[in-house]
Amino acid sequence: FPFRLFPLREHGMNWRAKPLTCQEIQAFKKSEEVMQRFRRAYQLMLRFYGIILINEETGELRRAENWAERFQNLNRFSHNNLRITRILKCLGEMGYEHYQVHLVKFFLTETLVEETLPNVKKSALDYFLFTIRSKRKRRELVHYAWQHFKPRGSFVWGPHDKLLKYR
């Protein structure tokens, strides 16, 4: 069977890889060894993208030492955005919603505030944001994106009247 590093309950680009079942997800979550491997795989991919997980409990992230070189790769090759979307969805499946939130906020900060990943901005707004399962957390991130988006009038990811009133 083809193996997936970040399996999902939906078909991906590899037509031979079978989607996960709910029973498999529950079995994974019950196995400390599987979950430890999953966290290691996540950290491996983060390092590949120039990001470090600085707190395994909270999911807090920061740039790695080699971030500039790795961000060049992210900016040049858009297929990475599909992988990041897959990782985000898998984090949600595996019960790591707090990791999702930190990773999406990291990309929103790098694309909208620091402007280091201009070619990732569209994916961050169109796809990464909407992998967040918690409606409240997703709203917080949409508001964060709106606060930093330029020009603000062109922001289409949420109703401006509600974003103005958001607390």
Automatic annotation (TrEMBL):
Pfam families for the chain = OGFr_N
Q: Which GO terms describe its molecular function?
A: opioid growth factor receptor activity
A GO CC term attached to the entry? membrane
- Opioid growth factor receptor (OGFr) conserved domain location is 5-163
Superkingdom of the source? Eukaryota
Q: Which family does it belong to?
A: Belongs to the opioid growth factor receptor family.
Which protein, by its recorded name, is this? OGFR factor
What species does this protein belong to? Answer: Balaeniceps rex (Shoebill)
What does the organism's lineage look like at the top?
Eukaryota, Metazoa, Chordata, Craniata, Vertebrata
GN (gene name): Ogfr
